[in-house]
């Protein structure tokens, strides 16, 4: 239905608004049919180059995820080490205070 002329125009039984609504519906129906046909063709024969690009992207995303996890782990280990140093520093300060009182 690639007609550009409204087949519903000049129909005596239809108001101008009804004519336009039916014409828009017919154009929409045609577009949906074309989209459906394209989807069926794509599903029947997948685009090999697109699949290859998606595989490459999938590998890269796996690498990004691995690097992200490693970075998060490194930050967590640094924080843990800093906390342990702070606790040991407090222990040292507390023990030097006690040893100074008894000397």
TrEMBL record:
GO terms for molecular function: microtubule plus-end binding. Residues 89-103 have a biased composition (Polar residues). Residues 83-103 are annotated as: Disordered. GO terms for biological process: attachment of spindle microtubules to kinetochore; cell division. It comes from the Eukaryota. It is found in: Chromosome, Centromere, Kinetochore; Cytoplasm, Cytoskeleton, Spindle; Nucleus. The keyword ATP-binding does not apply. GO terms for cellular component: DASH complex; microtubule; mitotic spindle. Keywords: Cell cycle, Cell division, Centromere, Chromosome, Chromosome partition, Cytoplasm, Cytoskeleton, Kinetochore, Microtubule, Mitosis, Nucleus. Its main location: nucleus. Belongs to the DASH complex DAD3 family. This is DASH complex subunit DAD3.
């Amino acid at each position: 239905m690639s007609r550009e002329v409204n087949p519903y125009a000049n129909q005596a039984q239809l108001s101008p608004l009804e004519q336009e609504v039916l014409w828009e519906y017919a154009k929409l129906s045609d577009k949906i049919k074309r989209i459906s046909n394209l989807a069926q063709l794509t599903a029947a024969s997948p685009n090999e180059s697109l699949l290859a690009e998606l595989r490459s992207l999938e590998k890269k995303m796996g690498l990004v995820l691995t690097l992200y996890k490693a970075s998060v782990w490194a930050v967590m280990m640094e924080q843990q080490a800093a906390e342990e140093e702070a606790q040991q520093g407090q222990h040292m300060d507390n023990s030097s205070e006690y040893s100074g009182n008894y000397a």
